[in-house]
Amino acid sequence: MFFNTTNESGVALRTAHARTLTQEEIILNFFKLNKNKAFSPEEVQTFCLPKAPITSIRRALTVLTEAKKLFKTGEKKVSKWKVNTNTWKWTDES
Question: Please, what are the domains in the chain?
Answer without folding.
Answer: 10-90 (1.10.10.10)
